[in-house]
Amino acid sequence: MKLNLSPQILFIIVTCILFSGSFYTFISNNDLVNKIILVIYIIYFLFYFKYIKGIFKILFEQKLLILFFGVLSFSAILSSHKILAFENLIILLATTLISVIIVQRYSLENWLKILSVVYAILIIMSFVYSLTSPNGIETGFHAGAWKGIYLHKNQLGFVMVFSTIVWLSMLKRKFTYKRLIFFLFSLILVLLSDSSTGLIGIVISIIAINTIKIFNKKNYLNVALVFFGFSFIISVMSFAIINYQAVTNILGKDITLTGRTVLWGILLDFIKNSPFFGYGYGVFWLDGGYNFMSPYWSTLKFFPQHGHNGYLDLALDGGISSLIIMVLILLSGLIKSYKLVQKTNDYKFFYLFTFLVTFMIYNLSESVLLKFNNLSWIMFITVIIYANIEYKNFKQKSTILKNTERLDKNGNKLTLLFKG
For the whole model, what pTM was predicted? Predict the structure, then answer.
């Protein structure tokens, strides 16, 4: 069934496109961007206020997520920049509410259809902009790499990695040439962005999908394939460790992962100084981390705007306590989505599982875990809530099916009929 493009759905599509990061390429005035974002949230309020009870019902059912926001709130209270931390937290909560609205109003199937429209538009816009404007291609250190409608090549790579996941899921539902073309275009844009992290993300997503397929088919051939597959991966990793210099040269990186490992060492020291509740959400990297990082700029030889690791940045924002809760949220979503795929083999649950695997791995070298006004956070929260709801529904259905069959004294099945 085709997606009904109502005004509400069209507005969600526009929001996702803007929140993917395309805002800042075309509007350099931050004040204007902030005003547009405020208008977006006001429109959501007007569109969905009548559903507010159902929206908050779903939100408050997410116990771990509520606990996570509670810890971030306590971190803000202890922060040296309380107002800033609370402002950031309120905006993050507003972005979270967009995710809850999507879950409350639309099925997972329809959300995937909405995302496919979003990514189709982003693919077309990035190709057209890079081919027609010099601003669509990097200059300087990353000269030649495509960045499409984004400010940096890695942004394009990141967006297109999750585009491939959406299109792979849609291809699993039903093969069409249109879906195949958009999947291939997503791959091409990742390659043109020259994003090593993006390429690794693609490989991980494909491995994740095929690993589930193998484990769903219980026979000796598949066990052997898994065994030899893991043996091959371990062999490649061993070769990479022994010949790390040659491997990093092939990838076009230095052995410090473009300075990341040095940066991570510095950030770990800061985490040790405020381990339990961090520095407050968004406080550490205020003004590019000037208050904390300026003494280390000469050592790093670059000016980081974030930690290039989502987990370290979260520990800086809300301490180890918030990091532990986030890991629990991720693992819970991962386990539930895996069980759903294993039991149903449904393309929708493939999307949930593959997104979480890729998202978790991606945050090891990029900081995309905790971003307000951002499509990645909207997608992440929808995945977590959909996984919780779908898993709960599946368990309820399984329980009902088990209860409908009983055995009589002779071992014959008796079917019990339930009213309602």
Answer: 0.87
